[in-house]
Amino acid sequence: MPEKQTLKRARKARRQGKSPSTQAGEFVREEIHHVREGKHGARSTAQAIAIGLNKARRAGVKLGTPKRGSARTRASARSASRLAGKKPSRRRSQAMRRKLEHARHDTASPSALSRFAKKTAKRRGRTDLSRAARKAVRTRRRRA
After folding, report:
1. Residues near 32 by beta carbon (within 8 Å), at least 6 away in sequence
2. How confident is the model at residue 97, as a pLDDT?
3. 26-48: per-residue pLDDT in tens?
4. Is 13 a domain residue?
5. Domain containing 28: what range?
6. CA dist 59 to 26, 29, 77, 119, 139, Å?
7. Model pLDDT, residue 58
């Protein structure tokens, strides 16, 4: 279950008309903090991010299913979206927590996140990056 502060920040982002990925970012941020403070671990940086995105979907953020990814990942995303607003299964939560308690905590370190971001950006390619840059120019706030 996400923390109240996280839900509050995500709702605020939705009210301000921000994109679903921005709203979901709050849940990913929370998850990174959980791994860092030792609440549980993650086998990889991607897993920590995936847990956060899953939490966002279950909280009702309108994230679509990933375009890339395995059939299992897409099915999991659809399932999480379907379960939006429902209370998570206590048994499932406890099982996942027990499993993740033994996982590593350095997967959410600043250097690990930096490595992951660079690797992902490299995979996206030039066209995608320039499109994102053009959108940023269009949608950025003007200085007063």
Report:
1. 48, 52, 108, 113
2. 87
3. 999 999 999 999 999 999 999 99
4. yes
5. 4-108
6. 11, 15, 12, 29, 26
7. 92
Number of neighbours of residue 53 by Cβ within 10 angstroms:
21
Does 134 reside within a domain?
A: no
In a domain, 47, yes or no: yes
Taking the model in full, what pTM does it have?
A: 0.83
Domains in the chain, number: 1
Q: Is residue 12 part of a domain?
A: yes
> 57 with 50: CB under 8 angstroms?
no
Instruction: Measure the N-to-C terminal CA separation of the chain; round to a whole number of Å.
Output: 40
Q: Which residues contact 129 (CB under 8 A, 6 or more apart)?
A: 121
Per-residue confidence (pLDDT) for residue 33, from 0 to 100: 96
Q: Work out the pLDDT band at 71, boundaries 50, 70, 90.
A: very high
